[in-house]
Amino acid sequence: MSEDEELIHEGDYVLLYFDEKRKWLIKVLKENEFHTHKGIIKLSELINRRFGEKIESSLKACFWILKPTLYDFIMHAERPTQIIYPKDVGLILIKLDVFSGKKVIEAGTGSGALTMALANAVKPSGLVYTYEIEDRFIESAKRNLKKARLLDYVIIRKRNVKEGFLEKNVDAIVMDVSEPWEVIPKAYKALKNGCSLASFSPTINQVEKTVEALKKAGFIDLSTIECLVRELRVETGKTRPFTRMIGHTGYITFARKTIG
Fold first, then answer.
1. Mean pLDDT of 233-249
2. Residue 233 predicted with pLDDT over 90
3. Which CATH architecture does the domain made up of 72-257 adopt?
4. CATH number 3.10.330.20 given to 13-68
5. CB 25, CB 144: distance < 8 Å
6. What pLDDT score was predicted for residue 246?
């Protein structure tokens, strides 16, 4: 075994992979067992194994032990509300120029899927300030962030964003709220000059009101994007698109703050 290879320890999360449709995000606790129609796996048998190895269930079915990615944590997150999907998350991170050391405001924590991605990007020296008023969403987001080991890079504020943000001169703001046009003047005050904002909305009517408010507040370089992703089923001589896809999830409006 190479010195660089990472061993699995108790308390780690692993992705147990059987096939492309059956994969589970599991916390390794030695007293627990994982039950499936393909048999039982004693989780104690995963400890001190290497990621990428196979393990057999009690019915001799083979599972792969994979290292979870941020994508896995997002897609397996606890969801009391709809999440922002990775297809939209990636675009937001790039367009807002979110990287290590940045300070970012998120309006509308929800399940914490986007919060996880923002925190992963700004760590270890940056911070995400996320605002939410629903207690059940806050608790769910905390559990999701803790599972992904990202809670240390997030400050959760129970506060209505219509009352304004407590931070000033942040590097980026992203909003997933029902009436973003009412929050935009508050976002303008909190955002650094020349920096970017993103607003996620499921309907065109929301987008129209948001764009109008952004122009009025002093934002420029506005663009609204709908991101669609279609996966392919690849087999020799049979390659074709999947019959199902993640289509419309929402529209993302981007803008940059100007002075005066």
1. 84
2. no
3. 3-Layer(aba) Sandwich (3.40)
4. yes
5. no
6. 72
